[in-house]
Amino acid sequence: MTTSATAENPVEFLTPDSGIDLGIFPLKKRAVLTRIARKVGATQSLDEVMDFLFEASQPLGACDRMSLAFLEEDGYHLVSRYVRTNYSPLLLGKGYAGDIGRSTLGRVIQSGVPRIINDLQEYAEQNPGSQATRLLLKEGIRSSMTCPLSVDGRHVGVLFRNSRHPNAYSKMQMLFHQAVVERISEVVEKAYHIEQLTDAKRAYLETLGFVSHELRNPVASILVNAGLLADGLLGEMPPQQAQEVQRIIAKCNYLMDLIREHLDLARIEDGQLSFNVNPQASLVLDVIDPAIEVARSVLEMKQMSIEVIPPKDEARIECDPELLKIVLVNLLSNAAKYGRQGGKVRIRWQTSDTGVTVAVFNEGVGFPESERPRLFRKFSRLQTPELLSEKGTGIGLYNVWRVVQCHGGQIKAESQAGQWAEFTLTIPQPLPTSLAE
């Protein structure tokens, strides 16, 4: 049933039609609908779909402004996710959120009924609390056509088509608008959810980086002060106090490892890893030695010895030494974490005409063959009692894998459960041209 607009009520609601007969439209409009269907099926970009829709709509009737809004999870707010106009300035832009409340827009969302307002000035006078309407009037908009986006029977948002002229829209234009919406609803909802996930990931990484960075300095200060106490530089301590200080140091080292891993993850996932290639980096002096220094305190806590084979520093390789240092620090930290008390850690490296290989070996619990597929997956931990007894996040080896991939290399792991584990990375030399440029 259609509710017609009157002088007293400038809003017209139309009974939604499902499966609209395209034969009611002229050939030109049917051709546009076919083009729209093909376009939306070939892209997942919300802006690309909507830009095409806005431009394709121009020859077919009044459309000075097109916008798309989605219903928030609470069911009470609409948030604008796309706006395109053929004029400026834009006052009601992307990101605007409004409470649908008891408005006529709420009826569109809740009942799936399309709406036409052909006198926006009159509508504003009857609905003085509508801030969105006031902003549209300031932009010069005088007519509005609104159609709900429906996916699997759910009303997920609305598509607005607006004109700067009053009385711009008819029922036939609304039917065409509905036919368009039928063809884009599923795709634009999917694209919207992709954007939501992207935004959530960005916010997560920003928070992750901020919190990790803010934690690093105070934890480092605690570690320094505890070290002064443990070394007796502030006076001798009774054995029981000295033991507690060592526990503080161990816990701080664990926190510093977590902070380092999360900062690395934030940089990697947010695309902030600048790939700075040094064509003549020293493998030992620029990568291995600095990594050992970072991991030394953790190794010393478990009284583990470390050996580098060969100990020479002549090897010159093409790489980003700062990124490769992330790899070695993570592998050495894991070797200490999962190695046995007083055990051996060995770094073995060799170069050839085609690449450089670095292997980190430790004596310890190792891992069973069945757990190998979990090793380099983000947030994945090996499901054995010995490995789960050590605290971890499943981030370090994922960071290792990403950095090795950045170099066009490969990493593999070998183990004999209960005895040893060895991680071996191979970096091609020279680096692939696309990486080294």
Gist of the model:
With 437 residues, the protein is of the alpha+beta class. It is 45% helix and 21% strand.
Task: Describe this protein's structure.
- This protein has 437 residues and is α+β, with helices and mostly antiparallel strands.
- 45% of the residues lie in helices and 21% in strands.
- The chain is built from 12 helices and 14 strands.
- It has a 7-stranded antiparallel beta sheet.
- Helix 1 runs antiparallel to helix 2 (46-57), helix 1 packs parallel to helix 6 and helix 9 runs antiparallel to helix 11.
- The radius of gyration is 31 Å and the shape is elongated.
Percent range of helical residues: 40-55%
**Tally of alpha and pi helices:** 12
Question: From N to C, what is the helix and strand string?
Answer: EHHEEEHEHHEEHHEHEEHEEHHEEH
Overall geometric form:
elongated
Global Rg: 31 Å
Characterize the main sheet. Answer: 7 strands, antiparallel
Summarize this structure as a short list of keywords or feature phrases.
single chain, 437 residues, alpha+beta, 7-stranded antiparallel sheet, 5-stranded mixed sheet, 12 helices, elongated
What is this structure's SSE topology?
Elements: E1 11-13, H1 27-41, H2 46-57, E2 65-71, E3 77-85, E4 97-99, H3 104-111, E5 115-117, H4 120-126, H5 131-139, E6 143-151, E7 154-163, H6 171-230, H7 239-269, E8 278-282, H8 283-301, E9 305-309, E10 316-319, H9 321-338, E11 344-351, E12 355-363, H10 385-388, H11 396-406, E13 410-416, E14 420-428, H12 433-436
Parallel strand pairs: 9-11
Antiparallel strand pairs: 1-5, 2-3, 2-7, 3-4, 5-6, 6-7, 8-10, 11-12, 12-14, 13-14
Helix pairs in contact: 1-2, 1-6, 6-7, 7-11, 8-9, 9-11
